[in-house]
């Protein structure tokens, strides 16, 4: 459990101006101090728990258990006696002791009664998974209004309805229908779309990207993206925030909160519904009315929110921002194992507004010792496929040390072992004279080198606080991050140069934004 | 071996106007009929073959053998007697009988003598792997001029120097230093960068993308990208051509050839050196002088060459173009498993100039039978996570059949099994009441469904000749293509919506280009 003492400071009620129900201001604001119980509960009940393995009431319960949640878990269903080895309760009332979090999967028309039980039981928070509310018809809209009134009256924090669920890795709570299990980390993701959220959580798992919280915000009947943003502001486990947004109910409040939060933690947002057709699709999806894209984009820029253009960028950027030091500026040095890749990366940098400064003589001289006389003698530094093990290390180090460079991109040193493995496989097949032992030794040496190289990049980042972004020659199958005990930063190795460039370009943008406040003190 | 009888028609000498040596015209042109021997040799010699497992002379030889080449293979090295179980020859002269292809890995200064031996031996073609030529210093430039003169004089086709090698899958010839083994297919890739080529071949292997030829064109001392393009025009195994270009020696000839070729086969090019810094990097890399990007882009558009912006696009586009029917227009229907993804895809389509037409009433009615009453009733068709197995099939079929739609994007039906697998794993762990057999049955049913769904998409493409592009919910680990015996097309399932959108946008561009010629007969 993470200490949350500092959370109270986010509750100032004058920040909120919800459009639909002015009377809700006080109660919603007061609810925030309880969000911590919602995301870090000591006990969880699943109302609608089921033994039917394709039902939401089963998938959520089973995921919580298989995910290793260590608190108490209570399945609630009057028709079952035992699910996944746990005794089943007829209703919330029958559960002995307190219940911090209730997940509801029963049909929409049962929600008001279940929520009444929640208030009677004094639960800390509710995630209303079920659909059939304002995203469907007038009847659904009415039920949603009723339950929102109930939550406001009883100050009961509610996520949803119509949500994929939540993940809180630091509490080992995986409470989503999809069973993706991203590892513990510092990236929080608030998503107004469940299926987009699921895919990103699955990608994050595959790439070893560490998540603090995933919140499928669903219809945002009660708690909305801005509320979650405000919670994340003080969440000590969260250092980077990504958001998928289709509509913001109260744009003014969002910008106000985002402006404050973004000075401490990067916020990266993907705005769904940027185009005419996209807006219409968003309206039919969550019932939200996306406003003018131009206005939204301008407001985000003002508030220091970085805008992604596509889902995959959300992960690239969050990985970059959560792992690397923020670039001090936009001057990039490039080290490449071969020429073409350097050219392509140069083009991408320039087109993204980054500079590629020429190399000063003292760096050229240092590198001269390690490369053949015909090397590029320029930025990008083309290692011309050298086998000199020191060359890549010297090249990166000289660039990072030089005050004419703010960030470095390294192409193709990491991932060579995958290609080497293929060469070894061929040798094993065709060349009986080379023993398996010899091949294992070679592979070990290559692996060792890559690990040492990655470690060296990390040490350089620690020493100079400039980002060094790697691009692997081939996927290593070990994820895209490299971590080392005691280091503030992690190594990042993207599969494509464009991802590395995009991270640095957005970092440079953020740096420029933050510089404004350093030049003149921010107004409160 | 592929019949090459029709190749002679590409040899018209008036098409060439090389700048450096007008006298070379005739000989280079005549040489093309011999390129087929180069790419489909019955015998191969490796000059510089070595038993040192990190040497190029070993890596190339071992790759050829391990790759399953069935022709005769001759290692040449006066200092060795036996490499990989093959007897070693002192020189080319000592090899009994003919040698079709010679790969050279010995130092630059030995190249003139080796090439003389090649001409004496009457070999069909040479791939000069070695570096140390015009990309290095004046001496290297002089050697390169000398060997080019020699090749011209003797009409000896030469690839390189300074190249990663070639791959000719249909002849089981994998003659590159890197041991990527893309499967047989219809995409040819000409790359002026070796390391970029290697990475793309490795990605292609991982994604199951079928390649006909890979040509690392290196310094292009003798044969250049335009020559290869002309060869590929008549290569029956090649249906799609991708190119990485840093400089074109004779832009006028390239445009002339490309315009002719692109009417039959799509050409997708990535232009390295689009920016000031990129140009400088390219100049130091291959010594090539990239011209004005604006002029190049305009010329490409005129010639029907599609321009990619980054390496990964080359693969996406080549996979799309080689697998799917060309879209008849730019009107896209979208079927999505969930809302957010549909919104994001809508935005991407509109921003790429594609239309998202509203659904006509008759399609809404057909789909009404399979989805709950609150479904979107619009394009994108949001399947709202339905478990109705017929819904996705009906939705796609209705869209494809309708003449108001030219192409369909399907989001998230394929790849569900990966997420289902995670759910089954949880159940196996937590729920002893469910037997392993039951879980296996569920997984088999899901797998079967996905296979049948993919097959259905293929049948629809065969029937209506409109592209149906899939986006998988999660990587299936089975590559991105789905093939079926007897089908002209393949199913394509990209990991991201933006790849699918990009393919359709470029297809629509190509369709528009081709339409010009259909409206008025092309001038010869």
Structure description:
- The structure is a homodimer.
- Chain A has helices at about 25-30, 35-40, 55-65, 110-120, 140-155, 195-205, 225-235, 250-260, 275-285, 295-300, 310-325, 340-350, 360-370, 390-400, 415-430, 435-465, 495-520, and strands spanning about 45, 70-75, 80-85, 85, 100-105, 125-130, 160, 165-170, 175, 185-190, 210-215, 240-245, 265-270, 305-310, 330-335, 380, 405-410, 470, 480, 490-495.
- Chain A is globular and about 80 Å long.
- In chain A, strands 9-8-11-10-12-13-14 form a seven-stranded mixed beta sheet, with helices on both faces. In chain A, strands 16-15-17-18-20-19 form a six-stranded mixed beta sheet, sandwiched between helices.
- By secondary structure, chain A is of the alpha/beta class.
- At the A-B interface, α3, α6, α9, α12 and α15 of A face α3, α6, α9, α12 and α15 of B.
Kindly estimate the percentage of residues of chain A that lie in beta strands according to DSSP.
15-25%
What is the oligomer described by this structure? homodimer
Query: What is the 3D form of chain A?
Result: globular
Span between termini of chain A: 32 Å
Task: Name the poorly predicted regions of chain A.
Answer: 1-31
Q: Roughly what percent helix of chain A?
A: 40-55%
């Amino acid at each position: 459990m993470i200490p949350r003492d500092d959370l109270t400071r986010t509750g100032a009620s004058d920040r909120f101006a919800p459009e639909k129900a002015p009377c809700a201001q006080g109660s919603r604001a007061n609810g925030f101090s309880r969000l911590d119980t919602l995301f870090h509960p000591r006990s969880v009940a699943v109302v609608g728990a089921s033994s039917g393995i394709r039902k939401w009431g089963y998938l959520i319960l089973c995921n919580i258990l298989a995910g290793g949640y260590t608190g108490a878990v209570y399945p609630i269903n009057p028709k079952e006696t035992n699910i996944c080895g746990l005794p089943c309760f007829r209703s919330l009332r029958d559960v002995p002791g307190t219940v911090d979090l209730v997940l509801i999967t029963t049909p929409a028309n049962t929600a008001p009664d279940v929520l009444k039980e929640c208030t009677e039981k004094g639960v800390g928070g509710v995630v209303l998974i079920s659909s059939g509310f304002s995203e469907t018809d007038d009847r659904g809209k009415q039920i949603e209004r009723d339950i929102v009134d109930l939550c406001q009256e009883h100050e009961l924090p509610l996520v949803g309805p119509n949500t994929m669920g939540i993940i809180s890795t630091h509490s080992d709570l995986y409470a989503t229908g999809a069973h993706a299990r991203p590892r513990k980390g510092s990236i929080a993701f608030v998503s107004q779309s469940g299926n987009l959220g699921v895919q990103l959580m699955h990608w994050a798992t595959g790439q070893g990207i560490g998540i603090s919280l995933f919140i499928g915000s669903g219809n945002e009947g009660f708690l909305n993206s801005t509320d979650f943003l405000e919670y994340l502001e003080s969440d000590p486990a969260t250092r980077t925030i990504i958001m998928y947004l289709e509509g913001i109910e109260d744009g003014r409040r969002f910008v106000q909160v985002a402006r404050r939060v973004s000075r401490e933690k990067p916020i990266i947002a993907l705005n769904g519904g940027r185009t005419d057709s996209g807006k219409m699709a968003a309206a039919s999806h969550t019932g939200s009315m996306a406003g003018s894209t131009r206005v939204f984009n301008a407001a985000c820029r003002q508030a220091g929110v970085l805008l992604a253009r596509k889902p995959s960028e959300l992960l690239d950027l969050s990985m970059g921002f959560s792992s690397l030091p923020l670039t001090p500026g936009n001057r990039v040095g490039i080290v490449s194992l071969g020429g073409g890749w350097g050219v392509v990366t140069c083009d991408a940098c320039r087109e993204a507004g980054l500079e590629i400064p020429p190399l000063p003589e003292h760096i050229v001289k240092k590198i001269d010792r390690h490369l053949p006389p015909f090397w590029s003698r320029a930025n990008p530094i083309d290692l011309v496929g050298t086998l000199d093990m020191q060359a890549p290390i010297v090249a990166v180090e000289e660039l990072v040390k030089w005050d004419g460079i703010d960030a470095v991109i390294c192409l193709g040193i990491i991932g060579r072992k995958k290609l080497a493995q293929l060469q070894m496989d061929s040798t094993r097949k065709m060349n009986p004279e080379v023993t398996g032992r010899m091949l294992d030794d070679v592979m070990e040496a290559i692996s060792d080198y890559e690990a040492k190289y990655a470690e060296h990049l990390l040490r350089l980042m620690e020493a100079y606080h400039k980002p060094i972004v790697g691009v692997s020659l081939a996927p290593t199958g070990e994820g895209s991050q490299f971590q080392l005990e005691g280091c503030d930063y992690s190594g990042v190795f993207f599969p494509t140069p464009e991802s590395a460039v995009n991270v640095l370009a957005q970092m440079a943008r953020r740096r420029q934004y933050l510089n404004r406040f350093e030049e003149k003190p921010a107004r409160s």
